[in-house]
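User: ok so my PI wants both of these folded by tonight, can you help

Assistant: No problem, let's get them done. Here's the first:
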Amino acid sequence: MHLKVLGLNHRTAPIEVREKFSISKDALKRGLENLDGYDGLSEAVILSTCNRSEIYAVTAEGCEASLYQFLNDLIGGSIDKKFLYEFDGEACAEHLFEVAAGLDSLVLGEGQILSQVKEAYTTAKAQAATSTILNTLFNRAIAAGKKVRTETRIAYNSVSVSSSAVELANKKLGGLVDKSALIFGAGKMAQLTAQHLLSHGLKKIFVANHHLERAQDMAAKIGGQAVAWEDAFTSAAHVDIIITSTGAPHYVVKPWQTQQLMTRREGRGIFFIDIAVPRDVDPEVGKIKGVTLYNIDDLESVVEKNLQARQREAVLARKIIAEDVAAVMERFKYLSFRPLMASLSERAEKIRQREVRKVSSKLPDLSDDERRILDQMTRRIVRKLLRMPMMKLNASAGTDAETFYTQAIAALFTDEVKSFAQN
C-alpha cells in the first residue's frame, strides 16, 4: 500500500496554468468511475478548487506512471511536471490535514476549503472509489480540520477570496458607499461576494447568470436586481465594479464587449475583479483604456491583513495536526497486516469447526450445555495459539523486523494451516 498525492496549487502554478488544468465535475466523476482502468490504482479522491487540483490515491508499488496518466486524462492534456508536487506516505497525510485545516490556502485559515474537502471525499465515496485507507485518511483529516478551527483562533479575523476581492475594490476605489456593482455568477462564491459588498455600504447590486431563475433567487436573497445574461452589459454601463465568479470553461467577458461598454460609459473608468478559475475575463480586457482588471492571483496583498496573528495560531494548529497525523499513520501500520491476520484466523476457525463436528458426531449423547462448553473451550485454544504470532506481527509494525515476521508467519502458519485444512 502506497499513499500518494499528486497535484498543483496557487504556490506552484500561476492562474494561467491552473485554469487550463482545472477539473470539471463531469470529468471528475467520469475519472472516478473508470478508476479500475488504471493499473495499480485502488483508491482515489480528487480535490479541485479555484486554487488547487489534487489526486489522493492508494497505489501499488511501481505504479507512479498510472497516477500521472490518470491526472493527464482528467485534465485532457499533459502538464509540465515542474508545476506539480508529489508527496508519499506520511507527507501525503500531513499535506491533506494542512489543506483541510486551511493552512495550505491562499488565505491562511479560510474555512471554505474544509467543505470542499468533504465534498471531494463524498463524491469519491459515492463513486465507490474509496476503501479502508482513504476512508480512514479523509475522515481523520476532516475531523482534524474541525478541531483546528475549534481549538485555535486561526480563522479569527481571517479573510476569504470573496472578502479579499471586496477589500481590494474598497481600497482602490476609496470606499464603496454609494457605489454599484454587477456580479456574473450566482454560486456560493458570488453570494458571499455580494454579502461582503453590501456590508461595505454598496448601493446597488445587479446579478447576471446564464440561468435567469438562479440570478433571481440570488437577487432576492441579497436585495439586488437580476438581469438577463444578454442584457448584462447594458446594466454594466452604469456600475462602478464588475465581479465575475462563474463556472464557465471559457471567457465570458471579451475585449470587443468591453470596448463597446467603455464607449457607452463615455470615459468613465470601470473596475473588474475576476475571482473565477478558469478565468472569466479575457486578459486582453485589462489593456483597454479606462479598465482596471485584477484576477485571483492579485489578491495576495489583501490577505496579508491580520496575517501575523493567524500565523501564531498556525503554529498551534500544526501541533494538533502533527499528533493526528501520527495517530493515523500508526493505524495504517496495522492495516497492511489485516489480510494476513484475517486469513490466519479464518483458516484456524475452519479447522476448529471441523474438528468439533467430528467429536460431536462421536459423542451423540452430549447435552446442549456440554456442546456449548466444548465450543467455548476450542475457541479459547485457537485464540491462545494465535495470540503470540499476532502479537509478534503487531509489534513488528513499522520496524526493520516487519518484513521478516510477515513472511515468516505467512510461511509457517498460513501455508501449514491451509495444507492441514485440506487433509
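One down. Here's the second:
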Amino acid sequence: MNKQKLEELNHIINELKTVRKELIVDRKNFLTIETYKCILNNGHTIIREKLLKGGIDGNAAVIVPVTKEGKLLLVVEPRVFTDSTVGIGFPSGYIEKGEDAIQGGLRELLEETGYCADNIEELDEFYQDVGCSAALNKIFIALGCVCKSKQYLDESEFVKFIECTLEEVLALEQKGYIKSASNKLAIERAKVYLKGR
C-alpha cells in the first residue's frame, strides 16, 4: 500500500477512534441471555447460556465487494471494545427478519457503501461462537460492484470506506489493521476465489 493511501487510512482511523466510554445500565438491552437445561443422549444434564441479539440468533452476512475495476472495498467504523476502538473490514451486518443471507448482505453493502453488485456468490459460512450463540454467518463475494447511491446509515452508524487492491488488503491484514476473525476468513476465501479466476 502506498504511503498516501496509508496516511489517508490512518486519518480515517483517527477520526473514528473512541475517546470515552460510559456504562449505561438503564436501557433496553440489545444483547440478552437465555439459560437452558440440556439433557444429553448419554443421560447427563448440562446448563448452557445462549446469547441473543435483538431477541434473535443474530445471523449475519459478510460481503467482500469487488468493483468492476477489480478493487476491493473496505469499511472503517467504530469498534469501541477493541484496542484501537476502530475496525477495518468488509461490509457486514445482521440479517433482518424476512431476509435471506444474500438479501441481507446486499442490503448491508448498499447501506454501508452505496454500492450494488452484478453477481454475488457464497464463499463460506461459520458459527460466530458455538459456545454461547447460534449465530450463523455467511461470507459472500460481490462482483461487478458500482456506486449507485449515497450511504444509508443509521443515526448511530459512522462508516467510511476505501478502495484497495487485493495486495493492499493482504498487506493491511499483515500489518495488523484487520483483526476480526470473520474478516480474516473472508480475506482467505476471497484470495483463493480471485486468484483462481
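The chain has a mean pLDDT of 93. The CA atoms of residues 79 and 87 lie 5 Å apart. Good luck tonight!
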